[in-house]
Design goal:
The protein is mostly helical. It has one domain. Helix 3 runs antiparallel to helix 6 and helix 3 packs antiparallel against helix 7. The radius of gyration is 19 Å and the shape is elongated. It starts with a helix and ends in a 29-residue tail after the last helix.
């Protein structure tokens, strides 16, 4: 994760893509492992949370937003996303700016990663993760769902003493 942050800071897009792929492969290796243990599953959970939620939703967006004022043509974050997502004819002119090209490349890498889908209804293979996590969870009353959210009926776990005390 440190390397991913470093490459994000210097906007080294190919290295960002490589680091995300390494994390994705590690996550997939754990999820596909038939005899994954509780510790490994929590490693997968950390990868899923850090890459899917924190990195893609917050850090990458902040990295783009921070650099937008340095473009030759000033754009808001929404304008930037819209121009790229809609394939605007303005892109041809905007791509004359080297920083815009790097930001666009970065955004496309993040978007591609964020939209990874390996079946099921959730992205990043989260359905398989949820199933394994709930099976291996030592606290059988505590069930998680999409994006690591706890089932409302098991949320009272915060009021219970930890089992290992």
């Amino acid at each position: 994760m440190i390397k991913l942050m470093k490459y994000t800071y210097i906007l080294e897009t190919e290295k960002i893509k490589e680091e995300l792929e390494k994390l994705w492969k590690e996550y997939q290796k754990i999820i596909k492992k038939k005899d994954a243990n509780w510790e490994e599953l929590n490693q997968a959970r950390a990868i899923l949370f850090i890459t899917g939620d924190i990195y893609c939703e917050e850090i990458s967006v902040g990295a783009i937003e921070k650099r937008l004022p340095n473009l030759k043509e000033k754009l808001s974050l929404i304008e930037f996303f819209s121009l790229i997502d809609q394939g605007s004819i303005r892109l041809e002119d905007l791509r004359k700016d080297v920083l815009f090209i790097r930001l666009e490349r970065f955004y496309r890498i993040i978007k591609e990663f964020k939209n990874k889908h390996i079946g099921g209804k959730f992205y990043l293979g989260e359905e398989e993760f949820i199933k394994k996590y709930n099976e291996l969870n030592p606290d059988k009353e505590l069930k998680i769902g999409y994006k690591g959210k706890f089932d409302k009926s098991s949320i009272d776990f915060l009021n219970r003493p930890p089992k290992n005390l």
